[in-house]
Amino acid sequence: MKILTCTQQKEADEYTIAHNSILSINLMEKAATLLTDAICKRWDKSHRIVIFAGPGNNGGDAVAVARMLHLKSYQVEVFLFNVTGKLSDDCLTNIRRLHECGFTSYHEVTSQFDAPKLTAHDIVIDGLFGSGLNKPLSGGFAAVVKYINASAAKVVSIDVPSGLMGEDNSYNIRQNIVQADITLSIGLPKLAFLFPENEELVGEWEVLDIGISQEYIENAETRYLITEEKDIRPLITPRHKFAHKGNYGHGLLITGSYGMGGAAVLSARACLRSGVGLLTIHTPVCNHTLLQTCVPEAMVEDDVHERFFAEPAELDNYQAVGIGCGLGQEEITAQAVIEQVRDCEIPLVLDADALNIFSTYRNNLSYIPKNTILTPHIGELERIIGRCSNSYERISKAKDLANSLQCYIVLKGAWTVVITPEGLCHFNPTGNPGMATGGSGDVLTGIITALLAQGYSEEEACKLGTYVHGLAGDIARNKVGEISLKAGDIIEALPEAWKSLTKN
Ligand SMILES: NC(=O)C1=CN([C@@H]2O[C@H](COP(=O)(O)OP(=O)(O)OC[C@H]3O[C@@H](n4cnc5c(N)ncnc54)[C@H](OP(=O)(O)O)[C@@H]3O)[C@@H](O)[C@H]2O)[C@H](O)CC1
Ligand SMILES: [K+]
Fold first, then answer.
1. pTM of the full predicted structure?
2. Which residue CA neighbors atom 15 of ligand 1 most closely?
3. What is the torsional sign of CA 352, 356, 362, 364?
4. Does ligand 1 come within 6 angstroms of the Cβ of 58?
5. Which among 43, 281, 479, 487 has the fewest CB atoms less than 10 Å away?
6. Is residue 274 in contact with ligand 1, taking CB distance under 6 Å?
7. 504 pLDDT more than 90
8. What are the extents of the domains in the chain?
9. Where does K(+) bind (predicted)?
10. Radius of gyration of the chain (CA)
11. What is the per-residue pLDDT for 218?
């Protein structure tokens, strides 16, 4: 699913009106009908609905919703802010329609706003500003926002929480943005919804399909997409009837150190549950027995060192290599990692300590081969690109890094994003907060390494790997709950996740 900018969203509306023979006012009527349904589904008529409408079409939506709720016998009160004396045509039409159905609780605010007292049982509909916002809110509107946020009422924002920009909020004023409990987004989701710092502003969100022109969406250029199951399923290549283990690649995981053998176990088990033909684990001697016992399906190659990875492995026999889980950052390991990466000519995944090593030895970043997959969490990424003050800045800088290294970056978190060397950002929808636990990343590295070994392209391996990892996490959550979820549960759920993605 594409994510469009607010400017594109406006163009999409105009295109739909021009090409799908629908009048602008009727598109608004469609939006208002869906908004009203979504509201009625959640709250019954015992709640007073207090609607704050702005001067543009976001306000027009809100006024149309007021009429629909009024006609369903909800108790509705409308405050329309008309401080410049300039209302959009569709907003004006809806004000007329509201009056025509005998509605009397309408207040037009031109200067002084006598704020109603809001209680916890009230529902506020925030239709002040939507995709037409062109600067941070200030003055009277900022005061209205603060009053809404200070109230105990539940807040439903139409399209976007008023004051929030759809994409970049680096220069916004946070306290002047509505804190919604629910955002009912019209057409497509906005990029800003996917950023963790906006969670308390956007609340729970839902997209309402008002029938925006598919043709426009297909042709719209965007760098931001949400991966869907329908994008993932076709990527999976079925196994051949006459296949043998040699057909599915030999993966190598360079993982583990003294006290961190578990990371090697987790990544190896996940790798084996993701279709790899053969797996070898290169690990310090101290982990030999552990791995032979816990992962009997894998071969173990001992490093020269008792406790740490110290000497690069020979890569001739492998189709992919994953480096970093539980490696530690000993000087001797750092040198071995840099050398291993510099000379690597097969598909490569760098995770955890391998990334930390490159952030310490930054001058060696250019040794990372083209098309390598880097799988940092926010902390690991910022050790490389520097501290960022918000997600938009972080993603922009990550795109720069992916471009300068010509690498793939899998930035892990809620909405893990796969960034391609060309700067496309694919947001992954699966997964849950239970997966924020040690070892979860090791599992992902194992999965992606398995996919690369089987011959999936880097982009496919990133997208498919993050999707199935999150899906397995969701299956595990259903079994054990978010609090108890541990990395091993994700591995145990991988078979079901793979099965669900491959069944008809
Ligand atoms: N038919 C359609 O196009 C549909 C649109 N939908 C809804 O429409 C909004 C977008 O509507 P739009 O009118 O483009 O924009 P807004 O309602 O968000 O706001 C525009 C007005 O706000 C003023 N503005 C902008 N920023 C500020 C600010 N910081 N402070 C004060 N005023 C501001 C702006 O004035 P200018 O003079 O600056 O232009 C406009 O007056 C979309 O979000 C949907 O809710 C329907 O959903 C479907 C059809
Ligand atoms: K709004």
1. 0.95
2. 132
3. negative
4. yes
5. 479
6. no
7. no
8. 6-221, 229-234+247-502
9. 58, 126, 162
10. 26
11. 95
CA of 42 to the centre of ligand 2 (A): 18
Evaluate: CB of 159 within 6 angstroms of ligand 1.
Answer: yes
Q: Write down the residue that tokens 């889980």 correspond to.
A: 325
> Phi first, then psi: what are they for 247, rounded to 5°?
-80, -15
Q: Which CATH number fits domain 229-234+247-502: 3.40.830.10, 3.40.50.150, 3.40.1190.20, 3.30.1240.10?
A: 3.40.1190.20
Residue 245 has pLDDT above 80, yes or no: no
Is residue 48 within 8 Å of 78, Cβ to Cβ? Answer: no
* Closest atom, ligand 1, to C-alpha of 139: 30
Return d(Cα 17, Cα 142) in angstroms, integer.
Answer: 33
Ligand 1 near 132 CB (within 6 A): yes
Pairwise CA distance, residues 140 & 374, whole Å: 47
Reported as a single tens digit per residue, the pLDDT across 188-199 is 999 999 999 999
**ipTM of this model?**
0.98
Residue 88 Cβ contacting ligand 1 at under 6 Å: yes
Indicate the DSSP class of residue 40.
Answer: H
CATH class, 6-221 region: alpha beta
Whose CA is closest to atom 31 on ligand 1? 137
Nearest ligand 1 atom to the CA of 163 is 29
